[in-house]
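User: Hi! I have a protein structure encoded as tokens and I'd like to know what sequence might fold into it. I'm fairly new to this, so please keep things simple.
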């Protein structure tokens, strides 16, 4: 409400009351002004009323919300359902233009501003989370797998003769298929076992570079966040190797933003060597609905190349979701979530270790994995391989989600490539195991309840053998690895 309208209000209601209300409104406006001026995540979170005021201000800047607008084109922001319109805060035009997802739309100034501000706020959060030297990023309305594909397709224009992508093995379908979908041949490098951990085989990567020739390699595709006992790749060494041989380096940082260790690895890799882009999921790191990712890098020109590779306009929903979330949490609120996650990781490790010991198992020693933990299942394996997979079913039917039970010897063929020991990131890991993760948003109550139900299932399996008696699992739950993208 402008000053002229405020003056007019004083004709109807006492001027002292109007001035008080006007001052309260200016408090909201000052927060918005600071965001527009700085382009950074506010230190403290906004109230919902401030967020909604801001989004409504953006919406009235789009042509579909102009009073008296007359649209005669094929895309005029028309929405048949008022419920759908409200769900999107009447920001209907999406983001970008046909040639560039980051471009400004002439008839959607509000949506364009939303896009630019979201990218700026997310860039600030990436810096706060540990990658201080990141130069540019953008939110893309695709999950991590397809976002990786977009990066590979962009590199194709820089390296048209390249056919191969060197990929230290991680057993997750979408990151493997991201390379296949882009039209490249993944060169799978098996991990090496160090203690309980599965780590990058740097010598094998170097041999593949020598064997294939650097000019024929599109990039090295490495991973940070992953399921134990695999741990983040040796990013510094890989980045140094890529810089030495002039090979691009793309990092799958799916849920690594929440981990200071993963972000530090990326920062250090870029400092000592070469990292061209790193990709992370919105839902896993920022607790928003599935459907978006952040593509970031240290060369602003390359990040712009990737954004221009995206064909057509794009949905604004992921950008809107993450902007609302970060404005509501503020930088301090998000950092509190990260601190709590790290504390609960230690709590989960202690609880899992105690439970494992009570059942004659052990917590696998994986100190280089900052998010995921693994507990051996040797005792169940001694009973039967069926008992191992049955544990996964029992947990699933008892509403324990996210726990992964990994049996020995599973094979999986993906796009013509057969992975032996699939889900364990290794052809011959020595024991079956169960995974649990301390991801952002987890609570101590989640851990306590999970341990209680896991303990009951293990006791039932031990007592009743293969059938698990009264604790029967029912239909076999799908044991495919959850999406890590």
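Assistant: Happy to help. Inverse folding works backwards from shape to sequence: for each of the 485 positions I chose a residue that suits the local structure. Here it is:
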């Amino acid at each position: 409400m402008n000053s002229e309208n405020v003056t007019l209000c004083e004709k109807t209601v006492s001027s002292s009351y109007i001035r008080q209300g006007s001052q309260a409104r200016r408090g909201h406006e000052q927060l918005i002004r600071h965001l527009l001026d700085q382009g950074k995540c506010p230190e403290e979170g906004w109230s919902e009323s401030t967020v909604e005021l801001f989004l409504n201000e953006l919406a009235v800047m789009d042509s579909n919300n102009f009073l008296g607008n007359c649209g005669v084109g094929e895309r005029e922001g028309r929405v048949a359902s008022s419920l759908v319109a409200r769900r999107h805060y009447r920001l209907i035009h999406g983001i970008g233009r046909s040639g560039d997802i980051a471009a400004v739309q002439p008839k959607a100034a509000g949506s364009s501003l939303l896009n630019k501000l979201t990218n700026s706020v997310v860039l600030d959060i990436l810096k706060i989370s540990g990658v201080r030297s990141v130069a540019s990023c953008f939110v893309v309305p695709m999950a991590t797998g397809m976002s990786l594909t977009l990066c590979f397709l962009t590199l194709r224009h820089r390296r048209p003769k390249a056919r191969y992508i060197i990929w230290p093995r991680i057993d997750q379908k979408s990151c493997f298929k991201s390379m296949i979908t882009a039209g490249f041949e993944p060169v799978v490098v098996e991990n090496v076992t160090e203690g309980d951990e599965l780590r990058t085989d740097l010598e094998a990567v170097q041999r593949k570079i020598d064997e294939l020739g650097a000019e024929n390699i599109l990039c090295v595709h490495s991973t940070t966040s992953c399921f134990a006992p695999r741990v983040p790749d040796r990013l510094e060494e890989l980045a140094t190797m890529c810089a030495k041989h002039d090979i691009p380096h793309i990092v799958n940082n799916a849920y690594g933003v929440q981990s200071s260790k993963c972000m530090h690895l990326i920062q250090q890799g870029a400092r000592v060597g070469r990292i061209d882009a790193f990709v992370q999921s919105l839902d896993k790191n920022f607790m928003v609905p599935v459907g978006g990712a952040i593509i970031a890098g240290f060369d602003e020109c390359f990040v712009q190349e990737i954004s221009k590779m995206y064909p057509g306009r794009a949905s604004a929903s992921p950008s809107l979701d993450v902007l609302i979330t970060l404005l509501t949490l503020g930088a301090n609120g998000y950092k509190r979530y990260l601190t709590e996650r790290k504390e609960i990781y230690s709590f989960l490790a202690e609880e899992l270790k105690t439970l494992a010991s009570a059942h004659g198992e052990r917590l696998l020693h994986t100190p280089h994995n900052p998010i995921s933990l693994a507990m051996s299942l040797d005792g169940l394996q001694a009973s039967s391989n069926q008992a191992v997979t049955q544990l996964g079913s029992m947990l699933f039917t008892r509403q324990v989600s996210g726990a992964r039970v990994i049996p020995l010897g599973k094979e999986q063929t993906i796009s013509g490539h057969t992975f032996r020991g699939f889900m364990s990131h290794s052809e011959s890991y020595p024991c079956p195991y169960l995974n649990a993760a301390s991801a952002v948003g987890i609570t101590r109550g989640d851990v306590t309840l999970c341990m209680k139900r896991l303990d009951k299932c293990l006791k039932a399996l031990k007592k009743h053998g293969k059938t698990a008696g009264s604790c029967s699992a029912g239909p076999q739950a799908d044991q495919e690895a959850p999406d890590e993208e």
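A useful reference point when you look it over: The chain has 16 helices and 14 strands. Feel free to ask if any position seems puzzling.
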